[in-house]
Design a protein that fits this description.
CATH class of the largest domain: Alpha Beta
Bound molecules: 2'-monophosphoadenosine-5'-diphosphate
Number of strands: 12
Helix content: 25-40%
Shape: globular
CATH topology of the largest domain: Rossmann fold
Strand order of the largest sheet: 2-1-3-5-6-4
CATH superfamily of the largest domain: NAD(P)-binding Rossmann-like Domain
Oligomer: single chain
Distance between the termini: 19 Å
Radius of gyration: 19 Å
Length: about 280
């Protein structure tokens, strides 16, 4: 694809950034829609993140994605914060507005819920409480998104209880913290189980949680997507439950940024999944 002097420019800022699948993802969309644009990896060390973000308008960037470890720094560096990003204290998408100011939003939770709705069309937020396992940055986005979607109650279980308590008090709303030892007892009343930890990822042990106590109609999802079928999802599928893998969260969280920078609402489909998995 030829890039002209008028090409729209965006990218992903991280440290390291070489593992990011976002250039492949956005690159595929740019090609598919025939857009004169580029999306580049931006390897920026932590002590230069604010400087790099503030330089985006001067460099003519339309904006960028922000990944680990810059999401919190980005929340402090932008001129305007979307309310969801403010609640999360983290930004994953920056848009340079017409007047050269920076707007920060966080689309991780949006990506999570869109993936869930696509993968489990029968799931309704009002179906019942959700159990969220983990209390890191990823859990924060998931909890905020579930509450905003209308889940009546989120039950948070984390190996380290204090982290779950800190998350619950930061986020507010109907979030109950339950001890790690009780993680299987709470499943009986649960409509949705979400793993937000790194357990089950390639190179990590499986999540130490058996989903068998979940009711028959429950949905189980994992934000891990390497492998697509984590041991948790495999156990849930064997129990006859609906499962949703984590790849779609990555794909759907990218949609709002692409639309803002390049002017096209992109589609998430099987071809995109294949392209991103090959990377
Ligand atoms: P991120 O911010 O990307 O979500 P993180 O801050 O490293 O990542 O959080 C990882 C999550 O996995 C945490 O909830 C962590 O639990 P602790 O708060 O107790 O550390 C959880 N986790 C990591 N290893 C775990 C294990 N062996 N068993 C259970 N939970 C684990």
């Amino acid at each position: 694809m030829m890039i002209s002097g008028k090409a729209r420019v965006a990218g992903v800022m991280g440290w390291p950034v070489s593992h990011s699948r976002s250039p492949r993802l956005h690159g595929h969309w740019l090609e598919r829609y025939g857009i004169d644009g580029v999306y580049v990896p931006l390897a920026v060390p932590p002590d230069r993140a604010v400087e790099a973000i503030r330089a985006l308008p001067a460099l003519g960037f339309r904006g960028c994605n922000v990944t680990v470890p810059h999401k919190e720094a980005a929340a402090a560096a932008v001129d305007r914060l979307h309310p969801v990003a403010r609640r999360m204290g983290a930004v994953n998408t920056i848009v340079v507005l017409e007047d050269g100011t920076l707007e920060g939003s966080n689309t991780d939770g949006f990506g999570f819920v869109e993936n869930l709705r696509a993968g489990a069309p029968g799931w309704r937020a009002a179906d019942g409480p959700a159990v969220v396992v983990g209390a890191g940055g990823a859990a924060r986005g998931v909890v905020v998104a579930l509450l905003d979607a209308g889940v009546p109650r989120v039950v948070l279980v984390n190996r380290t209880r204090e982290r779950a308590e800190a998350l619950a008090s930061d986020v507010g709303g109907p979030v109950d913290v339950v001890d790690w030892v009780s993680r299987e007892t709470v499943l009986r009343e649960t409509a949705l189980l979400v793993n937000t930890t790194t357990q089950g990822m390639v190179g990590h042990p499986p999540l130490d949680l058996c989903p068998d106590a979940l009711p028959d109609g429950a949905v189980v999802t994992d934000i891990v997507y390497t492998p697509l079928m984590t041991p948790l999802l495999a156990a849930a599928a064997a129990r006859g439950l609906t499962t949703v893998d984590g790849l779609g969260m990555l794909l759907h969280q990218a949609r709002p940024g692409f639309a803002a920078w390049f002017g096209v609402e992109p589609a998430v489909d099987e071809e995109l999944r294949r392209v991103v998995l090959e990377g």
